[in-house]
Write a structure and sequence with these properties.
2 copies of one chain form a homodimer.
Chain A (H helix, E strand, L loop, with lengths): L3 H16 L6 H7 L4 H7 L3 H26 L3 H18 L1 H10 L5 H27 L9 H13 L1 H4 L8 H16 L6 H6 L3 H4 L3
Helix pairs in contact in A: 1-2, 1-6, 4-5, 4-6, 4-7, 5-7, 5-10, 7-8
The first copy, chain A, binds a DNA duplex through α3.
DNA sequence: ATGTAAAGACCGACTGGTTGGTCTGTAGTG
DNA sequence: CACTACAGACCAACCAGTCGGTCTTTACAT
């Protein structure tokens, strides 16, 4: 069984997801976790620290995954594929964390916010690097401004948290397939060629007429 | 000079943008607007109605623009270009509205929320239709699932509100250029051809090496 | 094994400040 | 006079956080 601290996090995640950070009182959290104010404040200095803990757990995970993907592959094309895939899949694993992350990050106090921002920027930086590397090595179209391209990728993936449902029409893997395909079509040069057609074949939806 | 109602909206937009809806009190709004509680509640039934008014102003505008773009063009390619462009440009015009729109929409009560959702869905529907139309007419790759493609587009554009600054490196028009290029590269078939290369020539960043 | 003391975990009534919203009043206008 | 547009004192509810205290586990000496 979970210890109290984890149970509080788990329950508050559910509540925040439904009602937003400001739509949930400590009393509600405490009741849902079958504990008391005392129990809560024994584990967290403030309601806001709980918010931070949730943020941190998520961004730490994403950053770690991306680093791994970055290191296990050598070609920029494979790197970006792996990063996108692991990033997309996070939205299945960490959905409630992410809702809180994007909805309520502005209510984090300076001190907390800076820690989060640091890790978030690290992640952003990694994507940027892969794009630039891919351009230098001639895999990706050189005319694209890396920053805007990176923000476009981040945006389309991040937005998933607004619409993804586990019981939705497409599985998270299918979403990853399509998104990777869209992104590669944007990044790779238009000229038809061996390499391009090889990289652009993604199973699940290509057989549809 | 603005009437009081507009002044309250204007000022609260600035405050919400900086501190979030829950980070701003009615008292602060009232002081920033050089008025009183009485003044505020004369024009709005509640703080939440103000939130709704802000939401509504924005989504109504976007939806209207998109409809216009949809009607003045015939080719799906031109349609999507025009819709994306006008949509992207909204982020320059309505930045504070949009921050509030995406950050705080969950705090709208049922009644308000449904009105907003309706208009938002209309807009989403329009993009979907253009994609499907483009596929049927053979302009866009038929293997792409329209819903996922639509959500990807919506995501990359919507996310702009998280990072766009007026004094940033790229102008809103340049951002629109790049995003349209990325999207068209994703949508159009890979095969090199007259039409494709014609549609994919966007001035500002193609001369960079 | 047993007694004991200290630390850690948890309880829940209480509080003090805050906040959205109300209500009565009033200045100006037609 | 009637009506709109606003002023500002006031209120009731709420809510994050506190604090004194209890129960449970651990640590160690006898």
């Amino acid at each position: 069984m979970l210890n109290l601290r984890d149970k509080i996090i788990e329950q508050s995640l559910i509540l925040f997801d439904e009602n937003g950070f400001h739509g949930v009182t400590v009393k509600q959290i405490v009741e849902a976790s079958n504990t008391s104010k005392g129990g809560f404040y024994h584990h967290f200095h403030s309601k806001e620290e709980l918010l931070f803990v949730i943020h941190d757990a998520f961004i730490t995970y994403v950053s770690k995954e991306a680093k791994a993907a970055n290191e296990t592959h050598t070609s920029p094309v494979e790197k970006i594929q792996a990063i996108i895939r692991s990033f997309v899949k996070v939205f299945d694993l960490y959905k409630p964390h992410i809702s809180v992350f994007y909805q309520e990050s502005m209510y984090l106090k300076q001190e907390y916010e800076q820690q989060i921002k640091k890790k978030r920027d690290e992640f952003k930086q990694m994507i940027l690097q892969v794009i630039e590397e891919g351009q230098r090595m001639g895999y990706f179209r050189k005319e694209l401004p890396p920053i805007l391209t990176g923000m476009a990728i981040l945006g389309m993936v991040n937005w998933i948290y607004k619409w993804y449902r586990r019981d939705g029409e497409y599985s998270i893997d299918e979403i990853a397939d399509v998104f990777i395909d869209l992104i590669l079509h944007s990044l790779l040069p238009s000229v038809e060629g061996e390499y391009r057609s090889q990289m652009l074949t993604i199973p699940f939806f290509y057989d549809k007429k």
